[in-house]
Write a structure and sequence with these properties.
The chain is α/β, with parallel strands linked by helices. The chain is about 30% helix and about 25% strand. The protein contains 14 helices and 26 strands. A hairpin with a 2-residue loop joins β8 and β9. α1 runs parallel beside α7 and α6 runs parallel beside α7. It starts with a strand and ends with a strand. The chain binds uridine-diphosphate-N-acetylglucosamine.
């Protein structure tokens, strides 16, 4: 298994370009099923989760090619299978995103139940109940969800809780349904808006994405499109914390700061100077000490749960005490045990992590447990004394494009060790 070796202590400085957002790209890839016309993606990030979605689409018969501009072109006009197998779904829960598109376009889908997950139970009941309201018949057979429908019919759906992929899945199902669908209590994450923009560029009629209520007028069919995947706000936030934690000066290019206010406001409170330009964010932490900042995660526009582990490390090195509260997922503090082995002083009680800042960390061999937990261990390694070896980095490759290259470019001493 590959590992990352980090020798901590280098201040990061310079500029890097933000990659396309994984969580925007995944639902759009699933949405290619909705049209028989080719769809071209620009700025698609090179990540394991994207490869997994390619494998799911490929196993159903999608043609995925690189065009002369090195952009991915996907055609789902010859699908022969409407199934996402367990071997793929178990590595990526977001595989469930093909459910809505398959039922809407082909009237049938067979998707392995995602099952348990390192960061909580993460059920898919909101997806299934909403799809049933649209008229699909849902059966659970041998660990698989089987959904079928002659024709989906638009209706009003009030989600019992806010779910990002739940909102996206049902939005995709509703674009080809007969009549109007109104979705309430939806996720307002920027990636939901991105998906609506993408679907509208294919000919869908969706309004309200980014607010509590989305209205979708069903259309007969969708066409092709060419779409640029927007920047990954979580990747950008992670590098900004890398800058802050090492007392550095880093500029991230190709970002949309307007969708990162929840992160940038907290970084400012931690003592960082944050300068926002047209599509850049610069963070300067030189000669500043880190101030403790309480964090409480919540659906957008709240502080993202996907930045919780990284901010926990920043707080762990601050001059004081803070509390980080995780409200979105249960059991999302698995990084804490490993961070404490590096010298952090963090106590978890229920959904709260009580953090006492320490002045330094020591490098250690540590084990990544999920995507954002891995990011937090790398951040800790960047400022720890001596060598940190992060094991099980396949988690990080799911969501960070060439992380060691980008960090090395900013001056970190980080190397990928082969198997
Ligand atoms: C998405 C993101 C993930 C992020 C999360 C929260 C993608 C591909 N993934 O995951 O990076 O951490 O949003 O911002 O976009 N829930 C139910 N029943 C359901 C669905 C969800 O109870 O049917 C609960 C979950 O257990 C969780 C909460 O709702 O407690 C939010 O989960 P959700 O927004 O669905 O997360 P994902 O869409 O899986």
């Amino acid at each position: 298994m590959e590992k990352l070796k980090i020798i901590g202590g280098n201040k990061l400085s310079g500029s890097i370009t933000c990659s396309g957002a994984k969580n925007a790209a995944l639902p759009m890839l699933a949405a290619t099923i909705l049209s028989d016309k080719p769809i071209i993606f620009k700025n698609l990030p090179y990540l394991q989760d994207i490869t997994t979605m390619f494998e799911i689409l490929g196993s159903m018969g999608a043609e995925i090619t690189l065009n002369e501009s090195m952009d991915f072109m996907i055609s789902t006009s010859k699908l022969h299978d409407y199934e996402a197998r367990y071997e793929l779904v178990k590595t990526m829960r977001a595989s469930i995103l093909v459910l809505g598109s398959l039922v809407a376009r082909y009237g049938f889908a067979r998707i392995a139940l995602p099952g348990g997950c390192a960061i909580g139970t993460r059920p898919v009941d909101f997806h299934l109940d909403a799809l049933e309201k649209l008229g699909a018949k849902i059966e659970l057979k041998s660990g698989y969800i089987e959904a079928s429908s002659e024709k989906l019919i638009g209706c009003e759906i009030n989600f019992p809780g806010v779910s990002v992929t739940g909102t996206e899945n049902i939005m995709m199902a509703a674009v080809l349904a007969e009549g109007q669908t109104v979705l309430r209590n939806v996720a307002k994450e920027p990636e939901v808006e991105d998906l609506a923009n993408f679907l509208n560029s294919m000919g869908a009629k969706i309004i309200g994405a980014g607010t509590d209520e989305i209205v979708i007028d069903g259309v007969e069919s969708l066409g092709g499109t060419e779409f640029v995947i927007p920047a990954d706000r979580i990747e950008a936030g992670t590098y900004l914390i890398a800058a802050a934690i090492t007392g550095g000066d880093v500029t991230i290019k190709n970002v949309q700061a307007s969708r990162m206010n929840n992160i940038l406001d907290k970084l400012k409170l931690s003592g960082a100077s944050v300068i926002v330009g047209d599509d850049i964010i610069q963070l300067i932490m030189e000669n500043h000490s880190i101030l403790p900042v309480d964090i409480s995660t919540a659906p957008f526009p709240g502080f993202p749960t996907d930045m919780q582990a990284q901010f926990t490390v920043l707080n762990a090195l601050s001059e004081g005490s803070s509390v980080v509260t995780e409200n979105v997922f249960e059991n999302r503090f698995m990084h804490v045990q490993e961070l404490n082995r590096m010298g952090c002083d963090i106590t978890v009680k229920g959904s709260n992590a009580f953090i006492k800042g320490v002045s330094a960390l020591n490098g250690a061999p540590v084990m990544a447990t999920d995507l954002r937990a891995s990011a937090s261990l790398i951040l800790a390694g960047l400022c720890a004394k001596g060598e940190t070896i992060v094991d099980r980095i396949y988690h990080i490759d799911r969501g960070y494009e060439r992380i060691e290259e980008k960090l090395s470019y900013l001056g970190a001493d980080i190397t990928r060790l082969p198997n």
